[in-house]
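Example complex used in Figure S2.
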Amino acid sequence: MSTKLTEQVTFYTEDHEWVTVHGELGTVGITKFAAEQLGDVVFVETPEVGKVFKKGDDMAVVESVKAASDVYAPVSGEVVDANAALADKPETVNEHPEADGWFCVIRLSHGEELSGLMDKDAYLEFCKGL
Amino acid sequence: MSMNTQGRPTAPTSTSVSDIETVSGSRGLLQAEGLIFEIGTSETTGVDLPAPQNRTGRLGGVARKVATGLPGLSEPEMVRHYMRLSQRNYAIDLGFFPLGSCTMKHNPRLNEKMARLPGFGDIHPMQPQATVQGALELIDELATWLKTLTNMPFVAMSPKAGAHGELAGMLAIRQALIARGEGETRKRVLVPASAHGTNPATAVQCGFIVDEIRADARGRVDMDDLKAKLEKSDDIAGIMLTNPNTCGLFETDIKEIADLIHDAGGYFYCDGANFNAIVGRVRPGDLGVDAMHINLHKTFSTPHGGGGPGSGPTVLSEALAPYAPVPFVVKNEDGVYSLVEDMDGEASESFGRMVAFHGQMGMFVRALAYILSHGADGLKQVAEDAVLNANYIAAKLKHVMTPAFEGYCMHEALFSDAFTADGIETLDIAKALIDEGYHPMTMYFPLVVHGAMLIEPTETESKATLDQFCASLESIARRAAQGDETLKGAPYLAPARRLDETRAARKPVLKWTAPASDTVAAE
Amino acid sequence: MRYLPLTDDDRKAMLKVIGAKGVDDFYTDVPESARLGGKVAGLPDHQGEMAVERHLSKLAAKNRSASSGPFFVGAGAYKHHIPASVDMVIQRSEFLTTYTPYQPEIAQGTLQTLFEFQTQVAALTAMDVANASMYDGSTACAEAAVMACRVTRRKKVILSGGLHPHYAAATKLLCEAQGLEVVHLAVAVDGEMALADAVDDQTACVIGQSPNIFGTVTDLSGVADAAHEKKALFVSVFTEAVALGLVTPPGEMGADIAVGEGQSIGVPLGFGGPYVGLFACTEKLVRQMPGRLCGETVDADGKRGFVLTLSTREQHIRRDKATSNICTNSGLCALAFTAHMTLLGDKGLKGLALLNHEAACDLADALEAVPGVEILTPRFFNEFAFRTPMNAEAVLAMLDEAGVVGGVRASRLFPAESMGDVIICAATECTTPEDIEAYAAALKEIV
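Predicted assembly (1100 residues):
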């Protein structure tokens, strides 16, 4: 069963994904740190609505001019929405990575996985060490 | 005296080049030139064909509805268009092209002349074999050279390029495993992290799973990692290893690697991209190789043509030869050559056909002309001079740049970007070389070296050329070490400045479309 | 050794700078047992330009060139006239001896011609976009099948019985290596429409050809509709690019992917290669397309320029996740195609296509008049199959003695079928009335 959260909380992975949890849904994207490292994003392949991922599965692809990177599912669950606006405006990922540049919304199937992720302070500390 | 002050000045006065604007957009010899779609019209044609009678009787009405609208140009306009475009290209005939792992050597014109003989250029792949005996003999003669130079018993001639040769080799391995009844179980292929991207891509195309092995501090295969990966070996299909490797180094443990793979029940695919370093001096068949493609466009100097066509004949060991692709040429006892095209008889175990027809004949002619011109003695000299030139560059630049590894290299010298100041990248050094009149080296490859710069001079460069190049690169390297910000804007003197690749990829414009105003005017 | 500039003095001086005693020092990493004492045994030493030219000319003289007499061989490669200026363009050093345009600042020549090529191919096939070319038509066909499976996430590919058998073989090989299922429909002269009945819910794509291997032209719109109804893709194949000047092109039939051989425009027969594969698709599929793509952009001064783009699909970046392992295109052949097409223009292409069709009509009329000959191809462009009253191999051999290269026997292309009395022949703008007369006369004599 998914953990019910009454307010929005954002969690981070060591692979630079973020997930903002609201109720049983989680909005997923890549972090500001990742967006800066990648450089100019030119294309995002968001997952299909209805697809089910396990935590750590390849979920999306983000492409800069010279590199393509896989985005892993930060939590398990089913994709219920994907950010169609990124198709025309991939630069949104660079401009607002942790807001309008979201990739998809997942219905969490294993809420307990969240306990293994970092909060914002822990993530920022983690990035300093890279 | 009579004072005649007419006539042009005999000495120039100085004006800054960048200030000069021209009405035409041309810059002297560099002529401005639009796209053919902006120059030509669909009613213009540059050919004089007999007038058709507009009979379409046997077409059954399966006719095109909308015209192509493609523009035509008269012959002088067409010639001038492509001449003007040609002036925007760098080329090996124009200058030094030290592009690592690409072997940009001189392309002899004799080879072009031979390939254009009507007996080679104007024969059809499906005309009766009795009418193409000379062509089949040529393929057989080139095959004999390739087999002897590599000490391998068989060569598949049909692969169209290096990556296609990789496919041939890996499909032969797949077929051999199937014949052993292990096609479903042996799926893992070991590939070093330094490998060219085609290696893992090819393995996956053949249904294999890629398992990456690390490089050690000497730029070679990490033997401990390899052994660990082979501990459980019943799923091993083989290894794909470039030798000399992409760091420009000979794999010291190559025989042990081959033995380990064979003991594990797998096969050894050697990427022959760097054969130029050892041709005529080392035979891959003596190293335990089961399959290796040979890039005729690298080692044997068929022209690169701005990105192909290449050619990738692939030599095979006794173990893999039965599975070779059709077609192949055999010489019968009566001296007649024939093509084995069907999968029966001697090709009954073949893995199949990779391509229509028999391979890149045009490249075979060129490669054989090159090989005959050099002979066994000349090819050995090719390898030695290629390696000598690379080591000379390494020696001249090691004081100002950071060699990636210690010791001598083979045919290419590899540096990392450790010597550059913060903010200056390998890319900036490469682009600055353009202003110096050189084609840049290969950059950011292999991936195992940070900011890699891979310099392959080849054997067809003179000492004077290498000295000039080293002087240019040394000066750029010093500026990079000092953090000279002007490098970031290079090139300044090329036909185009740095191009916006982000814009090209975000909103791809992949063909010309008529401006909206034209459409309105036409309606 | 005329291609090696270093002198012995140079070599000595360079070794001194390096600090090596000799070149053997560079090869000490080679295992002892694999070091050769001298040069490779069993091979001759170097030869001068005259000797090489003499030897190769002798080999060339043993072959009968297509221009040396009446010539009617097609089946995937066609004897067309190539204007002299086309060969001159591709022999320019700046195109011939340069590399893939990875440094766009000094490769705008190559890049602009690729952009023109892509536009021409898209227009010719009536498709949205085209790539910068593939090895040849057969490998393009195989890549199209694999791409269709990637796009639809399905695993079944259906080939028509009229698909060039080499294309079918190359496609089958690549698909089966990747665990994809290939269904090959029964070989038929006029059976492309059978694809419409064969497509089902598991099908990734159906692959049909027009004109097909027997020369039959077919409007495959019905196949496209049937495929789309099952959410499958329709791949439209052609081996004779000139045909598209006259017959219904892939885009007008609703093709999702169009692939074919571009040899007919600008590229010599050359015994089968190098050729140039054409690959085009709809806008929607562009990011799944294999091979190189050139795109328009601007440089730092704001001037129009071109670069290779969407390269993240390719092997050098995606490695084991690439759309294909292909690392090259057929650049110089693509340039030949573009230069020739630029000479032709729409008007020249139409005229050329008509001349081809008319020559084939005249040939069919002449052969049909020979007693016992039956034309099998119901609708054709410049190639058709006919039945002879005798074994086709024997007929072709006798035609050869009469100086006529009469075509390809179907049994060479389809050894498993009983087509021993079928010949496939082609006529082009190079075919003269005298050639046709000679063919008909010789055939009459034989049968």
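The two ends of chain C are 57 Å apart (CA to CA). The domain at 67-81+350-446 of chain C is CATH 3.90.1150.10 (Aspartate Aminotransferase, domain 1).
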